[in-house]
Amino acid sequence: MGTRVTALVWVFSLAFALLGYRYYDVQLSQGDYYGRQATASNIIGGDLIPQRGSIYFLDKDDEQVPAAVNKEYPVVYAVPSEVEDPVATAAALTPIIEDISQEDLELLLSKKDPYEPLIKRPTEVQVKAIQDVFLKGIYIRSGSDRFYPLGKTGAHVLGFASTNESHWLGQYGIESYYNQILGGVPGEAEGDRVKQPKHGKDIQLTIDPNIQSHAEETLSALVEGYRGQGGTVIVAEPKTGKILAMASYPTFDPNEYSEFEIGSFLNPSVQSIYEPGSIFKVITMASALDAGKITPETTYYDSGELTLNEHTIKNWDLKAYGTVTMTNVIERSLNTGAAFAQRQLGDENFYEYLKRFGLKDQTQIDLPGEVTGSLLPLEQDVREINFATASFGQGISITPIRLIMAISAIANGGDMMRPYVNADNKPQKVGRVISKDASKQTIEMMVSAVDKAGLAKVSGYTVAGKTGTAQVPKTNGGGYTDEVINTYVGFAPAYDPRFIILVRLDKPYGAPLAGLTVVPTFRDLAQYVINYYNIPPDRIDIE
Question: Exposed end of the chain (fewer CB within 10 Å): N or C?
Answer without folding.
Answer: C
